[in-house]
Write a structure and sequence with these properties.
With about 200 residues, the chain is of the alpha/beta class. It is about 60% helix and about 15% strand. The longest helix has 25 residues. A five-stranded parallel β-sheet has the order 2-3-1-4-5, sandwiched between helices. The radius of gyration is 17 Å and the shape is globular. It has one domain: P-loop containing nucleotide triphosphate hydrolases (Rossmann fold, 3-Layer(aba) Sandwich), CATH 3.40.50.300. Helix 3 packs antiparallel against helix 4.
Length: about 200
Amino acid sequence: MNIILFGPPGAGKGTQATQLATNHNLLHISTGDILRAAIKEGTPLGIEAKHYVESGGLVPDSVIIGLVREVLQANIGPDRGFLLDGFPRTVEQARALDTLFRDIDIKDVRIVILIAPEEELVGRMLKRGVELGRKDDTEETIRHRLEVYTAQTSPVRAYYEETRQVSEVDGLGRVEEVAARIDKALRQSPPALHW
């Protein structure tokens, strides 16, 4: 089983991604992490990405997809799947990812979206900002981040819903309760066999 996990800032996606990866023996892929690792290791794609990062530009989708391809080909197999954490963020990335899955014959991919009311998300992030001493985590900046997330991911969700089942999971409650809901959704979600 392979999972693409979405969720707005503050929905607990990071916590759930870590737990899901552990519970299901999945490779946890965060594109930010693999990008930093490739730059640090000086791989060909890492060197290419470093040029964009150092010049203040966005790393192109082709580089990110290339990094995901390398990680998948090196680390997954019949006994181990993956969990993509917060990627793809755009429809273009989703299409490129579909092409990658077809190229390397990955079929069973489940889409899970954590949801929570906006006021709950804002409250969580304000509290976290205080706990971590983040002075820039104001209500205004948090609401802007949520707007950006919605604008970016709504088209991605619509794209996936055209061809496969998307499981929406309530992100409110204790970590264990949310994890149990995700597991139930995964059991009820048929594998997407056609990409």
